[in-house]
Amino acid sequence: MPTIQTLLANADLPDSPSARLDAELLLAAALGKPRSHLRTWPEKEVEAAAFERFSADLARRRCGEPVAYILGRQGFWSLELDVAPDTLIPRPDTELLVETSLALLSATPQQVLDLGTGSGAIALALASERPVWSVLGVDRIAEAVALAERNRQRLQLGNASFAQSHWFSALAGRRFALIVSNPPYIAADDRHLGEGDVRFEPASALVSGPDGLDDIRLIVAQAPAHLQPDGWLLLEHGFEQAGAVRELLDAAGFAGVHSRHDLAGHERISLGRRA
Q1: Which of 13, 100, 210, 261 can bridge 19 by disulfide, Cβ–Cβ 3.0-4.6 Å?
Q2: 70 within domain boundaries
């Protein structure tokens, strides 16, 4: 049987920007071991069942399927989350929403809303860091709500909850100290929709009208009715959309409007406070 070292050396993923990492993640999963096992035991032979699974998963990745969907899980913040093709794959850029939210509100009891929660990544990250916060995540897709709830149960985060709602549709009369969202923000004709991992992700979680801002417009318009006085709205958006999102927040009467940069130096989120 081939060794770990041989399998990794011969793993052919020419179209992946992270070929070595992808191969290591897939092989570690096939072996049921952490990635550190691969470096500690490179000469160890791989048994037939693990070899067959690795080969099958490698073929799926070679066709472009995201590693997160192949493995059914993805790391976000300090959490390991179950993921599925019903939802977006949580990405490191979105951790900026978590970081900023934690800095804005005190570690005292607060009502927090995550709009378009998907796998529950943002809501669960906030709930894990602030046990006294009550965090509600909503999504219009029933399968996403069920997935987020499974993640919540596995992580045993009793201060988070999930419900089905198309943005604010099921939240009449509810007000929050913080509303955070990573909504769809890609223009319908964006060429990147046909490239990389996003080919496999749900279009409904990516695309939002001709300029990518339809859902953000709706959220900005409706959020004030669901914010407590001085409550904050935080939105992730495309790196070229910050100016347009700030204009929407200003026009809706938000105070303290500004944008913040991700690790690549792009204006990745914009926020404002209900005056």
Answers
A1: 13
A2: no
